[in-house]
Amino acid sequence: MASIYDNQAKIRQALVMLMRIVNDASVPRNIRRAATEAIRQLRDESLSPGVRAANAISVLDEISQDPNMPVHTRITIWNIMTLLETVKD
Questions:
Q1: pTM greater than 0.90
Q2: Which of 35, 75, 85, 88 is buried deepest, with most CB atoms within 10 A?
Q3: Is residue 3 within 8 Å of 88, Cβ to Cβ?
Q4: Cα separation of 38 and 60, whole Å?
Q5: What is the pLDDT of residue 89?
Q6: Which domains does the chain have, with CATH numbers?
């Protein structure tokens, strides 16, 4: 039972980190849009936590190679992806 709450805590933490990216005016618009899409994926209650995390990782992985991304944002995205990789069903 602890793992359910563990997954929820990890997803909540990822959402907070993603919201910081979305609200950061120094981040290019396309990257903020991808962060918004990752948030949408994580909030999709019709899917299991593992699938939601995998979908969000997929969105973030695509954008993580963007050469216009500020270094601090890239590091944050890598941290979010690492955190979400630990979410299991």
A1: yes
A2: 35
A3: yes
A4: 7
A5: 86
A6: 2-85 (1.20.1440.50)
Residue 1 pLDDT exceeds 70: no
Does residue 2 register a pLDDT over 80?
no
- Contact between 24 and 73 under an 8 Å Cβ cutoff? The reply is yes
CA dist 15 to 49, 56, 67, 68, Å?
A: 13, 10, 23, 22
Distance in angstroms (rounded) separating the CA atoms of residues 69 and 52: 24
- Placement of tokens 């890598």 in the chain: 78
Q: Which of 65, 67, 59, 58 is nearest to 22 (CA)?
A: 59
Question: What is the distance between the alpha carbons of residues 27 and 84, in angstroms, rounded to a whole number?
Answer: 21
Contact 56, 14 (CB under 8 A): yes
Rounded Cα distance, 15 and 11, in Å: 6
Which tokens belong to 15? 């959402």
